[in-house]
Amino acid sequence: MLVLTRKTGQEIVIDGEIRITVTSIGDGRVKLGISAPSHVKVDRAEVAARIAAEEADAAVLVCG
């Protein structure tokens, strides 16, 4: 894991095409803006976990 310190307005670039921008910091929260090409799926971890669980459940029903 890479850990970086950034200030509001600063960015991190991943693979030359994904940009993560710190939009605000305060009250125990950091807000991030994410710009990525349309073929890159971006989800919060809990959403990705829920989608994976739903897909696994669907696979069990199909393969049964």
UniProtKB/TrEMBL annotation:
Localisation per UniProt entry: Cytoplasm
Question: What keywords sit in the KW lines?
Answer: Bacterial flagellum biogenesis, Cytoplasm, Repressor, RNA-binding, Translation regulation
Which InterPro entries does the protein's record reference? Answer: CsrA, CsrA_sf
**UniProt-listed GO biological process terms:** bacterial-type flagellum organization; mRNA catabolic process; negative regulation of translational initiation; regulation of bacterial-type flagellum assembly; regulation of carbohydrate metabolic process
Any one Gene Ontology cellular component term annotated for this protein: cytosol
**UniProt main location, coarse:** cytoplasm
Q: How does it assemble?
A: Homodimer; the beta-strands of each monomer intercalate to form a hydrophobic core, while the alpha-helices form wings that extend away from the core.
Q: What is this protein called?
A: Translational regulator CsrA
